[in-house]
Fold this sequence. Notes:
Chain A is mainly α.
Amino acid sequence: xxxxxxxQRQFVxxxxxxxxxxxxxxxxxxxxxxQDESNPDFVVEVVSLxxxxxxxxxxxLATALQQKIVDYKQVDSHVHQFKGSSSSIGAQRVxxxxxxxxxxxxxxxxxGCLRCLQQVKHEYILxxxxxxxLFRLEQQILQAGGSIPMME
Amino acid sequence: MASGVRRxxxxxxxxxxxxxxxxxxAARRSNVNQExxxxxxxxxxxRLAIMxxxxxxxxxxTLFTWHFTKVYTRTSLNSLAYGLRYELLQRPxxxxxxxxxxxxxxxxxxxxxxxxxxxxxxxxxxxxxQVELYEVMRDVTWALFSSRKALNSMSIxxxxxxxxxxxxxxxxxxxxxxxxxxxxxxxVEPYGMxxxxxxxxxxxxxxxxxxxSAIWYREPLDPDTGRKTGxxxxxxxxxxxxxxGISQVPDGAASWxxxxxxxxxxxxxxxxxPVWDEDRGSIVAVVGVTTALYSVGQxxxxxxxxxxxxxxxxxxxxxxxxxxxxxxxLRNSSGGFALTMAKDSxxxxxxxxxxxxxxxxxxxxxxxxxxxxxxxxxxxxxYYIDSFFLNLTRLPMVGVLCIPRKNIMGxxxxxxxxxxxxxxxxxxxxxxxxxxxxxxxxxxxxxEMKLRAELISHLDARRKAEASSNFKSQFLANMSHxxxxxxxxxxxxxxxxxxxDSLSNEQYATISQIRRCSTALLRLLNNILDIxxxxxxxxxxxxxxxxxxxxxxxxxxxFSVQCKNRNxxxxxxxxxxxxxxVRGDSGRVVQIFANLIxxxxxxxxxxxxxxxxxxxxxxxxxxxxxxxxxxRALWNAYQKKIKRKGLDGKRTSKNDNIVILFFExxxxxxxxxxxxxxxxxxxxxQADPSTTRLHGGTGLGLCIVRTLVNKxxxxxxxxxxxxxxxxxxxxxxxxxxxxxPRESYRLKFAENNLKVVLALNGGTNRAILSxxxxxxxxxxxxxxxxxxxxxxxxxxxxxxxxxxxxSEGVEMEILIIVIDIGMLNISTxxxxxxxxxxxxxxxxxxxxxILNHDTSNTIKIELRRRGxxxxxxxxxxxxxxxxxxxxxxxxxxxxQPKKNIMWTDAHAQSSNDSEVTETNSTESFTAxxxxxxxxxxxxxxxxxxxxxxxxxxxxxxxxxxxxxxKVKNGQKALEGLHILLAxxxxxxxxxxxxxxxxxxxxxxxVGDGVQAVETLSIQKVENFNNSCDPPPFDLxxxxxxxxxxxxxxxxxxxxxxEMESESHIPIVALTAHAMSSDEAKCxxxxxxxxxxxxxxxxxxxxxxxxxxxxxxxxxx
Lengths: 152, 1116
């Protein structure tokens, strides 16, 4: 079972690096804690919900910002939603960019908004890749017959 | 000229703009400058326009004035001048006419007489008769001639060539008679000779000239009598006078002409009339009369002399007849004297006038009508020229008058020019003055405009500054929220960690250290939030009644733990007259003292910290020497308070009176340098910056304190203190309900004949308490340490005394021993023996134990076992002492068996709780919830939530306790609860659902506010129909920002519906904002509590429990 323990260690290291680099915060830990026998795929479920929601929101944002007359209120509400959902899964960096984004919205600064949109997209894709990698690792551990180590 | 004007205005503009620029602060942005230039420019244009209008107005005025004055004078003068000229011209012409008339008359009369005489002598037959005829004729002619002095000559030329003539030489005033000799004349019929031949009628001069042989004589006559005065002289014919001949009357009619004589220098008017014979068949003689026109000239001269003008008369052809000038009228030509033409006159004026007339009316018959010209330039002067035509049949004449314009209009013209100059200069002056006035006036206006513009820009700047300051506080609030959220998470997670049993001791210590640091950080954040709140003016003080004493005692209780650890005594000394209940913001008052006390603790390493308080009624307040009070400020604050009270008099009862509460916080720490006494109250200011590292802190505490104190109408300052340390003095204006009954324990104490032994460690506190008890009439013994106590006790309970005591009866006196647990030697086992010693007195005395926070359970259990049930947590203060004493009195009065009473203070249950949860050591946070929450922020992120939790009425405290139990017990805390979650975000939906389900709640999820409201109403209806099926919701978790209908609206709608049914479902807000305004908004629309995202599981559970507990508890 060396591979399992190796995988487990890898998993732990990876998760720790995610926390350290600020991709995730304790909210994600809380999510993980909520996952139990009754909800075995809770984290994956919520995170994929987040992915769906984010894709939709990002699309909405992109179209909203391409309008000739940008409706900042709408943009703001989208960003707010995005901020809420990202903070709920603990995608900290996305949340942070969202905060900046909202400031630009308030200033009605189109350049800033567009820049932030790019940033948000970037951060979102990053965090998505990271999370997907994490889940793949989880899958591997489970397939190898090991249990997922709990992060404290 | 125009360019000069422009340059001038440019200069003005330049100076205006430059002066404006000087007014402006140098560091203005360029667009402002431009704006200013534009404004200045517009002012300048307006100014120019006004000036231009003024100029036009004044110019017109001047022109009109000048024109009218000129025109009227000129017209009247002109008409006058015309009259004058007419008159002047008329008179010589009349004279001329008169001369002509008189000449004609005399000629006619001569002719008549001659006819008569000649007829009489027509039949003359001889020389004698002929001579007689001539004699008669001579006499007759003389008679006529002498009667007319103006006549120049009078002549009769007979047909036969005989001439008789009288001549007046005007030069030498002589009169001559001229005649021809008769010898050469044949006696011929004077008439009838040539009767048949008509051509005979035409005499011609040849006849006379042919008669050259005739000798003419001249004899001087006496001008008056006509007598001969001298010898006759022979003269050549025609020498002196023109004798009118037949040739002059060729058609037998009278003829007129102007003749020239060499004896006079003036032309002569000569008239010739024929003398006919009886039957008018032939002319017998010709009578000629000449009159000098000299007199006309003379008259003219007189007339025009005063006017300096000229008059002349010409014949129609232009021959000069008479002039007013002295120039000769005759020309000495080769053929003798001849008339001159007017245009050839030697007089320049006349000549030029004639020329002018000729030139002007050259080809037309000019002189048939009158000519009047007022503007003719002759020579170098302007003249009036008028001509008058005298139309005589035979001798048409023209009179011309030239009067220099200067003579008539000269003064007018001069005046005119002067007037014009004066008018122009006056109007220029007015214009200049007006322009200056306009400039000054508009300058004032423009200055005002400038000022106004500046004011506007200042206002703008102020608005901006305010906005930026608002941004700042917004930023601070936001930041503090952003910071507090993770902090709360950190603290919460640390708490979870601390609960973990598997930690090693080192780890535990580290984690608790981290927790302390986090708490400190959170406190700092709260301070910053407070400051920003105060600065943005959002701090509103509550008005609620509360027990000030209890709050302060609680505060001291709380700090006592810290003090004990530092070996510092925390003492509260409130005077008895302090009002029990005051109205105000308890949280803020407590914050003031918490800040002050924590400050003192920070800088005090040993000794004591005393909080003193006393009260003065404002009305009875007299100048207190010891205390600073700015009376005016106090009075102002008082007035304000009164006013405010008047404004919301409905809320506060009329009986409230305002009291001044004085406080002192004294410590024995390092003290503050007097030079820093003022500046310590500034933001981020510490008395000694070097201590920052040692003691920490931001320097915000005192700033907040002062702001709060000022807000409550008080003042704070650092006062002088004897010895080391700091003395802070402050006063607050608070209103108290007037009719609060004051307990009179004094009487009770005195009645019971109390004796108290105070065995306390802290000297200061003991002294204060004993002084107070003495004042109440209670006997006091003080003990500082164990040995002293034993000494006192032994002294008191000497056997003899005991007996006397027993004989007198126990009821007579009650002995109370208040003993500090610190008196016992706990470090070793000696304390048990000490207890044994004390037990000896337990029958006679009552014990009140003062426990420490760290008193171990074994001691407590031991004490209880031994029947010492009266225990209070330190520190001891009046209220606690009173409670102890009262309890003992009651006990002894009722003489009840010993009861299991555990006295602490008013918050009995909470204190119990604190004992239960004592693991949290230093924090003891569950006691005095609201107090603590200000000083030691809890796990809870949200203070109001905590307030909500702790401000539950006392009756429900049991519930609360159980909740705590439940929370501690963990998992299934929300078992059986039915919760409606309104949340649009799928992720949050999912997370919250799982969280809630994990703790046992049943969750229904809806996506927006509309659905939430609908779900509730459906449920209600169903409830009506079938009360048991779906259980009603116990609580709603409501996201604030949702599509379609947001949380606020939904809550409002739900509350509206509830109004009808009088039910109340708890609603908890979920929001990503943590601003206080959001919180206020949530509570305003009717929500009960408030949770921030991301959701903290623990907090959510506790919140939900606190809101649902009672129904829930009754269920379980």
